[in-house]
Amino acid sequence: MRKIRLGVNIDHVGTIRNARGGSHPDPVAAAALALEAGADGVTLHLREDRRHIREDDLQRLAASIRAPINLEMAATAEMVAIALAARPHAVCLVPERREEVTTEGGLDAAGSRKTLEPVIARLSDAGIRVSLFIDPDESQVRAAAEMKAPVVELHTGRYAGTDGQSRRAELDRLVRAAATTRTYNIECHAGHGLTFENVSDVAAIPEVVELNIGHFLIGEAIFIGLRASISEMRQRIAATAARALLSRL
Questions:
Q1: What are the angstrom distances between the C-alpha of 59 and each of 28, 53, 72, 111, 121?
Q2: Which of 96, 153, 192, 210 is catalytic?
Q3: What is the value of pTM for the model shown?
Q4: What is the pLDDT of residues 159-196, one digit of tens each?
């Protein structure tokens, strides 16, 4: 049965901490709990304005856990230097605007080769696995492959933010883009805006091997606890894989 990895994004534990200052709640403690609850790895976005995670969070996380760390970051000289010093398992390059509330869309990989290609090469040469966070578009997948990025993460925000026929159309875009990753032999991840209610259709896409989910899980933890929130998401993803297996028997 296909195993879909779950990466838990701990950014918004940092958001709550930063709202008041101090050290509580600690994102690193949340990461440890997430792994105990069934997460396969930890994702964190170190933004230019440090609104969520700080450098010391990344350093403490790298020193305290052995699970894969996925560092989301902009393709800037400052962030490349931080990544090269920390050496996380993976870096996911994302677009970033200071005035945005959350990441609004994918990278324009096809139109940003001059910026992205040397960053991908530097990180890859350091043994860091590089992913590009892109909109579900075949041309963006092709551009990632041409720049030798081994992984893409498909932006599921538009899918998650719609319903009815619009959601079906966005799901179709995700399915086509994921199929293109197989053509170019690129690993396919997905994330942004996924919840208990909408995760199954994305998890059912055959090429998707990893989902990165954060805001919903941290928000749901207010009501049911972080361990229960992650465990429930893990179970829903596993149930999707089980149904896919049965459908082939």
A1: 10, 11, 14, 33, 23
A2: 192
A3: 0.94
A4: 999 999 999 999 999 999 999 999 999 999 999 999 99
